[in-house]
TrEMBL record:
<dbReference type="GO" id="GO:0015036">
    <property type="term" value="F:disulfide oxidoreductase activity"/>
</dbReference>
<feature type="transmembrane region" description="Helical">
    <location>
        <begin position="122"/>
        <end position="144"/>
    </location>
</feature>
<dbReference type="Pfam" id="PF00085">
    <property type="entry name" value="Thioredoxin"/>
</dbReference>
<keyword id="KW-0249">Electron transport</keyword>
<keyword id="KW-1133">Transmembrane helix</keyword>
<keyword id="KW-0256">Endoplasmic reticulum</keyword>
<keyword id="KW-1015">Disulfide bond</keyword>
<keyword id="KW-0813">Transport</keyword>
<keyword id="KW-0812">Transmembrane</keyword>
<keyword id="KW-0676">Redox-active center</keyword>
<protein>
    <submittedName>
        <fullName>TMX4 protein</fullName>
    </submittedName>
</protein>
<keyword id="KW-0732">Signal</keyword>
<dbReference type="InterPro" id="IPR052454">
    <property type="entry name" value="TMX_domain-containing"/>
</dbReference>
<dbReference type="InterPro" id="IPR036249">
    <property type="entry name" value="Thioredoxin-like_sf"/>
</dbReference>
<feature type="domain" description="Thioredoxin">
    <location>
        <begin position="1"/>
        <end position="77"/>
    </location>
</feature>
<keyword id="KW-0472">Membrane</keyword>
<dbReference type="GO" id="GO:0005789">
    <property type="term" value="C:endoplasmic reticulum membrane"/>
</dbReference>
Length: 146
């Protein structure tokens, strides 16, 4: 979820109720703020918010059903998740490819922080910051090419 997301705000009360009932269902329920954990959003290939996953014994399934408390509870208690196709091996959050995707999301956050530092703290014009990143990209490419 993200704090600014209207759909996330709409499901928040239901999700909190589901979390309170989770002990009776024998599951653990959590939520992750993708603005604070961009690596996880990359690792789980989050393209829409909110995104709900069911994980059991290292197998991940994306929940795409209705977002009512009864439907969420039924998904677990009636074992409806067994009928859902697991996330493909290469797209699984535990795969090497998704570890790499998480790394790219962390890198993009780091680049954004550097850009903010250059423009906000040091007062460098935005286009000069862009030029610095272009030059760094060319130099890194040249170095790797050698």
């Amino acid at each position: 979820y993200a704090p600014w997301c209207p759909a996330c705000q709409q499901i928040e009360v239901t999700w909190e109720s589901f979390a309170k009932e989770s002990e009776h269902l024998g599951v653990t329920v959590g939520k992750v703020d993708v603005t604070q954990e961009p690596g996880l959003s990359g690792r789980f290939f989050v393209t829409t918010l909110p995104t709900i996953y069911h994980a059991n014994d290292g197998v991940f399934r994306r929940y795409r059903g209705p977002r009512t408390l009864e439907d969420l509870q039924g998904y677990v208690s009636e074992r409806k998740w067994e009928a859902v196709e697991p996330v493909a091996g290469w797209k699984s959050p535990s795969s090497i490819m998704m570890h790499g995707m998480a790394g790219l999301f962390h890198l993009s956050g780091w680049i954004r922080q550097i850009h903010s530092y250059l423009t906000g703290t040091l007062g460098i014009h935005v286009w000069i910051s862009y030029a610095i990143f272009i030059l760094a990209t060319l130099l890194i490419g040249l170095f790797l090419g050698l």
